[in-house]
């Protein structure tokens, strides 16, 4: 099976392999799924204007993320219920991503301990939601630092969890006892102040950096003015994301928002993007527009439904696609892609 067909078939195969309520949870957006549904087509709408008469014998698809090299220009975005998708869960995702030389962002609701994930040797960042009582986050942050987390990714677009419509039984009606929240204190959810913070502000970036000594990435930014506030507050990177269309439905696509954020940041911090990217050509679009890296959420989960080998194959086939696209664009590196977008 050629690369395009195999990658494109991951979603359908996951639909067949997973319990209906679990697949629905992974694939769905909030409310009417307007934002989620339009994400992929936005990237596919772009056309390239490739360069010619350039030596592309040697091509390097690697990038630098927060001062360290990544062999691939994408990372794995944070997702929960990975052990429900496959028993090996985060360990399979981590091992396959480590082998590809990429970055794994681990959900704070992971079903595998940070220590176990860190032991795989993968470069990993912790995704965090802050509770109303910030001190309740400290034990989780401490465990992440002790296990080798390389950065913190603060998710800022979820003061409350958006409504999701279900076709039948919800995934939360099915018990996955070992699938989530193993890194939390047992009584965390019952403590006063444990609900998600509705008062997040720039000061929280300072608080996280001081508590952990790690660079802070801010995930969930769509507006240029918010991007500037993040940079002014010391963010190491701004992550353009609408939560995969799972928060405010009818939010603008990340494709549409990326250029404005890049202009606002002006190189003062790294800029990442997620949302609907499904192929090496989609990744090339994002890089050519100026993103420093792409993050993939659903695609790795779909691959995980087939096990660690499929996650490894996903990374390998995406790399093949990106390298071929770089050559066909007359680009020897990611930096060369700036300017190949037509129009």
Write structural notes for this entry.
Helices cover 39% and strands 12% of the residues. It has one domain (3-48, 60-331): Aldolase class I (TIM Barrel), CATH 3.20.20. The longest helix is centred in the last third of the chain and has 21 residues, at 308-328. The chain has 14 helices and ten strands. With 343 residues, the chain is an alpha/beta fold. It is globular. The strands form two sheets. An eight-stranded parallel beta barrel has the order 3-4-5-6-7-8-9-10, surrounded by six helices. The chain has a two-stranded antiparallel sheet with strand order 1-2. Helix 2 (10-17) packs across helix 13, helix 12 packs across helix 14 (308-328) and helix 13 (298-304) crosses helix 14 (308-328).
Question: Which structural class do you get from the secondary structure elements?
Answer: alpha/beta
CATH class: Alpha Beta
Shape annotation: globular
Radius of gyration: 19 Å
Portion of residues in beta strands equals 5-15%
Helical content class: 25-40%
Written as H for each helix and E for each strand, in order along the chain, the element string is HHHHEEEHHEHEHEHEHEHEHEHH
What count of helical segments does DSSP give? 14
Alpha-carbon distance between the two ends: 34 Å
């Amino acid at each position: 099976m050629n690369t395009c067909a195999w990658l494109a078939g991951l979603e359908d195969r996951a639909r067949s392999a997973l319990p209906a309520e679990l697949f629905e949870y992974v694939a769905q957006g909030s409310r009417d799924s307007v934002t989620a549904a339009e994400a992929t087509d936005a990237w596919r709408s772009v056309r390239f204007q490739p360069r010619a008469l350039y030596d592309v014998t040697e091509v390097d698809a690697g990038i630098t993320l927060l001062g360290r090299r990544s062999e691939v220009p994408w990372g794995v975005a944070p997702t929960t219920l990975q052990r429900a998708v496959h028993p090996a869960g985060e360990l399979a995702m981590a091992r396959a991503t480590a082998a590809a030389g990429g970055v794994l962002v681990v959900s704070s609701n992971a079903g595998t301990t940070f220590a176990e994930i860190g032991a795989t040797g993968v470069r990993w960042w912790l995704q965090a939601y802050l509770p109303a009582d910030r001190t309740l986050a400290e034990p989780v942050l401490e465990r992440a630092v002790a296990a080798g987390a390389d950065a913190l990714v603060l998710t800022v677009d979820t003061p409350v969890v958006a409504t999701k419509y279900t076709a039948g039984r919800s995934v939360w009606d099915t018990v996955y006892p070992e699938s989530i929240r193993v890194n939390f204190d047992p009584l965390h959810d019952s403590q006063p102040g444990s609900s998600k913070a509705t008062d997040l502000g720039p000061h929280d970036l300072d608080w996280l950096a001081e508590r952990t000594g790690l660079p802070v990435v801010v995930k969930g930014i769509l507006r240029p003015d918010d991007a500037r506030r993040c940079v002014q507050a010391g963010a190491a990177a701004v992550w353009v994301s609408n939560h995969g269309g799972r928060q405010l439905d009818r939010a603008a696509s990340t494709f549409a928002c990326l250029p404005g954020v890049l202009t606002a940041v002006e190189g003062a911090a790294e800029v990442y993007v997620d949302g609907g990217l499904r192929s090496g050509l989609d990744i090339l679009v994002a890089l050519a527009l100026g993103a420093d890296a792409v993050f993939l959420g659903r695609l790795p989960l779909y691959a995980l439904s087939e096990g660690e080998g499929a996650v490894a194959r996903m990374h390998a086939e995406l790399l093949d696609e990106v390298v071929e696209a770089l050559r066909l664009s007359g680009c020897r590196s990611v930096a060369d892609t700036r300017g190949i977008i037509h129009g």
